[in-house]
Amino acid sequence: MRHLLPLFLSLLALFAQAQPEVLSTATQTARYRINLAAGELSPISGGSASGRIESLQASIRYGELQLNYSLAPTDDEEQYYLTKLTASLNGQPLLLAPEQIKGDIGRLGNGGAKQATLTGLLDRFINLEGELSITLTAEQWGEFVLPLGINCDEPPTFNGKQRLPYLIAAGVGAASIGVGQLIKQQSDDTYNNEYLTAGSLSEAQPIYEDANNKHHTYLILTYAGSAILAVDAVLYIIRGARHQRRLKLFRQYCEDGRSLGFEPLFELPSGLQPSGRAGFKMTLNF
Questions:
Q1: Highest-confidence range of 30-34, 140-144, 187-191, 242-246, by mean pLDDT?
Q2: Does the structure show a pLDDT above 80 at 40?
Q3: 66 contact partners, CB below 8 Å, separation of at least 6
Q4: Short-list 196, 213, 212, 192, CA closest to 204
Q5: CA distance 88 to 161
Q6: How far apart are CA 142 and CA 144, in angstroms?
Q7: Which of 125, 146, 135, 181 is nearest to 28 (CA)?
Q8: What does pTM read for this prediction?
Q9: Mean pLDDT to the nearest integer, 121-147
Q10: CA distances in angstroms from 207 to 2, 73, 184, 216, listed in the order given
Q11: Do 96 and 108 form a contact (C-beta atoms < 8 A)?
Q12: Which of 39, 63, 79, 167 has the most other CB atoms within 10 Å of its CB?
């Protein structure tokens, strides 16, 4: 397992080098006094505009925590946001499983009104009571593209070499999930074959901790692998769509559009041109 971690980080670094850059990051925190079981939620400090995050508000709906937030428009149509959410109760982090966060959190998208819902809170925590802190982070992603126009000498490409980082990322995500499944099996075996058959509490306690640690490792690898696969798929679709747009413009202006050129000219002497002609002629194609 120690040898897999450097390889895992190296592959992630290779994948990151091929992706768009973070152009800006905005963070906003809203604090509330909450009693979720009683349906009570009152603001302490709130979600006023903060950089790219225009607003952030929370409300309780049918025992779930609903978040409404708004992001400023991106500077370019090829830029997008990636939003992240963290929460704490009375200063202690709330560990939310990815499947509990529904809506726009963690999805790539443009600016505008967004919504997310934190589900299963009463099942997971029994109740949320005290001071709730919600922090939203919005990363604006994109590429720095100089306005140089269209280069008809270099048609846009999206070849195998350019696709390789996406394939590597997909492999890393799948491998992370696969390793997680193996560790989960080890955790189950440790619990069923060793913990349940232990002769005393002192003997059972370290066995239980070992099985529990393996189970947490399985969860981390599974969530990380799933996140890598999801983000990789979306980035691949965005990259492919951008390539198609650029290819369409290239064909419009460089293949099917107007072009100026020169062609050799050679004419033998004739009645209309007794001396003949030799040289070049300028052509304009439509």
A1: 30-34
A2: yes
A3: 58, 59, 60, 115, 116, 117, 118
A4: 196
A5: 43
A6: 7
A7: 135
A8: 0.47
A9: 83
A10: 21, 53, 15, 14
A11: no
A12: 79
Other beta carbons within 10 Å of 47? 22
The residue assigned the tokens 């963290």 is: 86
Residue 41 is encoded by which pair of tokens?
A: 């939620």
Angle between helices 201-250 and 160-190 (to 10 degrees): 160
In total, the chain counts a number of residues equal to 286
Of the two residues 78 and 18, the one the predictor is more confident about is: 78
Where does the pLDDT of residue 47 fall: very low under 50, low under 70, confident under 90, or very high at 90 and above?
A: low
Instruction: Kindly state the DSSP code that residue 98 receives in the 8-state scheme.
Output: G
Q: At 11, which amino acid appears?
A: L
Strands 40-45 and 53-61: unpaired
> Position 134: which residue type?
I
242-250 long-range contacts, CB within 8 A, separation 24+: 242/78, 243/156, 243/157, 243/158, 246/156, 247/155, 247/156, 249/150, 250/150, 250/152, 250/155, 250/156
- Per-position b or e across 260-273, b if 16+ CB within 10 A of its CB: eeeeeeeeeeeeee
Give the number of other CB atoms < 10 A from CB of residue 134.
22
Question: Contact at 8 Å (CB) between 89 and 105?
Answer: no
Please give the Cα distance from 48 to 30 (Å, whole number): 9
List C-alpha distances in Å: 226 to 12, 28, 43, 107.
14, 26, 34, 13
State mean pLDDT over 89-106.
90
Residue 156 to residue 243: CA distance in whole angstroms = 7
- 216 burial (CB, 10 Å; 0-12 / 13-18 / 19+) is exposed
Alpha carbon 231 to chain centroid, angstroms: 4
Among the residues of the chain, which ranges form H helices?
4-17, 121-125, 160-190, 201-250
Distances (CA, A) of 224 to 83, 233, 283: 16, 14, 58
